[in-house]
Amino acid sequence: MMAAITAARLGADVCLVERNPKLGRKLYITGKGRCNVTNHCTPEEVLAATPRNGKFLYSAMNQTPPAEVERFFTELGVELKVERGNRVFPVSDQSADIIDALFFELRRLSVPVIQGRVSALDVQDGAVCAVELRQDGEGQKKIPCRGVVLATGGASYPATGSTGDGYELARSAGHSVVPPRPSLVPLEAEEGFCGEMQGLALKNVALRMKDRKGKVLFQEQGELLFTHFGVSGPLVLSASAHLRNWEKETYRLSIDLKPALDEQKLESRILRDLGEAPNRSVERIFSGLVPHSMVPVILNRLGMDPQQQANAVTREQRRALVQLLKHFTMPVTGPRPVAEAIITTGGVKVGQVQPATMASKLVQGLYFAGEILDVDAYTGGFNLQIAWATGHCAGVSAAEEQGANRMDNK
């Protein structure tokens, strides 16, 4: 949509092919339905938050920085706000407002939206000259063109239409595709106690992710969720983007269940709880320290009898409890499938794409935008910022390819 709007504003004759009945289906689910539009930061900060081929985005991000994206949507009538971590959302907290703004701008510019699925690119003499379109109930047809922007997304959330079609179209044009993998995704663990705590959300905990050498790869405070397969929640999704070498590396997570207390203060708290009810079972005492469904797991990992009385807790047991509450560790064995990921890492090899124009180096008139490219970032609005910036860049370049005259954005 950004590429189509940009090209149409520059006077190009544009049509947008959409396989879903409605535009922006994936935008509906971003930011938990609120749409984290961008991040209120500098282009340099976006690149720093893009661990995969961030340097490739330098030109596009400076052409369309976050401030320009905010201005773009504000001028389309969407009021924006900045929240924790410089995350930018519509004031309404409704992703539909972003989608509607784009839709009505497309309509104002008289950009036709064709529902169908591009099945092939027609490349002749090294240049794109048409796309083959498959439409339900209408068979195949060709749309002649002088430029094609592939903005099909990656392979995550295939129900929204991103089923990897763009990768096959790129390959058919001679492009290499780095195998897509999940990022910003829940993590699996073999520990049986995860299933015992399924559905338990821990709030205001601190998570650390370490490699086999103990190097801290990620550290942040927030919310975490135990599931039947392992762990999920905002902290885990963010951490997963830092774990990129599953074939050769092993990773462990460590949860600080009481980040507001240092070890000395936590031990004092435990001593007080034990002293106030010396004849009470540790099972009941621990229910005041951690959520109820976590108590059996804590007791099991400490090797303690649930019915042991508080006055029988030894110094060693008390210190072991402190260590466990401050360092609840477990190995993670891998990410969930790419279909469950928020974004895809991998995609069209950026070495075959012109960074200043998003144009293919192999086929004249072919451009790429968004998640189809082998670039991805952390959470916080950065991935949508990449989509807007590369979409704008591709739209400008495609319009110039068609020989359109600039229209001063009117």
How far apart, in Å, are the first and last alpha carbons?
17 Å
Helix content: 25-40%
Supply the helix-strand structural class: alpha+beta
Mean pLDDT: 94
Task: Please tell me how large the radius of gyration is.
Answer: 25 Å
Would you identify the regions where 5 or more consecutive residues have pLDDT less than 50? 405-410
Strand proportion, as a percent range, falls in: 15-25%
Largest beta-sheet details: 7 strands, antiparallel
Shape category: elongated
Work out the number of β strands: 19
Number of contiguous helices: 14
Plain-language structure description:
With 410 residues, the chain is α+β, with helices and mostly antiparallel strands. The protein has helices at residues 2-9, 25-29, 43-48, 58-63, 66-75, 95-108, 165-172, 193-196, 234-240, 263-276, 282-286, 295-302, 315-326, 382-401; strands spanning 16-18, 38-39, 80-83, 87-90, 113-115, 117-124, 127-135, 139-144, 148-150, 177-183, 187-188, 201-210, 216-226, 230-232, 251-256, 328-332, 334-335, 343-348, 366-368. A seven-stranded antiparallel sheet has the order 16-15-12-13-14-11-17. Strands 2-4-3 form a three-stranded antiparallel sheet. A three-stranded antiparallel sheet has the order 6-7-8. Strand 7 and strand 8 form a beta hairpin. The radius of gyration is 25 Å and the shape is elongated. Residues 405-410 have low confidence and may be disordered.
